[in-house]
Amino acid sequence: MHQSKLDFFCKLGYGKQDICKVLDSLGQEALEDDVLKELIRMGSKPQALESQAQPAPLKLVARGSCSATPGLQWLGEDESDASDSLRPIVIDGSNVAMSHGNKEVFSCWGIQLAVDWFRERGHTYIKVFVPLWRKEPPRQETPIADQHILEELEKQSILVYTPSRKVKGKRVVCYDDRYIVKVAYEKDGVIVSNDHYRDLQNENPEWKWFIEQRLLMYSFVSNRFMPPDDPLGRHGPSLSNFLSKKPVLPEKKWQPCPYGKKCTYGNKCKFYHPERLYQAQLSVADELRAKTKVSSAPGKEERRCQCSP
């Protein structure tokens, strides 16, 4: 029991020393939710697992060149040039699988499609949460398709099972939505789900803002995972900016004026006029006033000369 809890929280990214301290203080029979609350209260934050990281092969460097990075690097979850600008991804596995299976079958292939989509974009921190009882053989009331995908994702340290057990023949399941929101909130990442988590929004005001701003919805179109191009609506950020830590502002493109040279708005026109690029954009009325001033100025000078002695 102690080893299973230790492995579970290690997969979440917590240090073994912090986990052992909490288990010693709360006891070996403590529930996972209580252990997680105590870890958060202690200020422990998930970190990359050094024990699971594998050393990368040595890179050849040309003579005379200086490299800031050492020849032998350890590839952790957060160490990547591409991942520095991309947000961590936390996927609601049950929601994605049931959506791909048309709410009738728990389709593990849908989870694989979502993971592959974020991998192709360059995201390195990807976590999928699925209840532990999905490991059991499928039943008639709970059909599962492509169950072997769950084992493969677990070996890659992408899939995390939320705990569940049986007490007197009844299954006791921990609330996996709370794990999803907590991990995404701590990692400052993005939640991939079509669920709105309204109960958790009412539970914590900080989670309410986070869920409203960081929830990425999606659709499956012919076995193709498709999130929207405007996750927060027409006036919100684009999908690339939504998934990036440092959003890039688009260049302002001027729209040409539909009236062209016939436009009478002058400098008040909000559209682009290529013919007025090096000219003062005055309105027609202002141009007429300027012309009348120029034409009337010589007449006034002549009158002044005639009246003077």
Q: Compute the average pLDDT.
A: 76
User: Low-confidence segments, ≥5 residues, pLDDT <50?
Assistant: 48-56, 58-81
Estimated share of beta-strand residues: 5-15%
**Topology order in helix (H) and strand (E) letters:** HHHEHEHEEHEEEHEHHEEEHH
CATH top level assignment of the largest domain: Alpha Beta
The spatial strand order of the largest sheet comes to 5-3-1-8-9
What's the CATH architecture name of the largest domain? 3-Layer(aba) Sandwich
Q: How does the major sheet shape up? A: 5 strands, parallel
**What is the terminal separation in angstroms?**
117 Å
What is the helix fraction of residues, given as a range? Answer: 25-40%
Work out the number of β strands.
11
- By CATH, the topology of the largest domain is Rossmann fold
Number of separate domains: 3
Structural class: alpha/beta
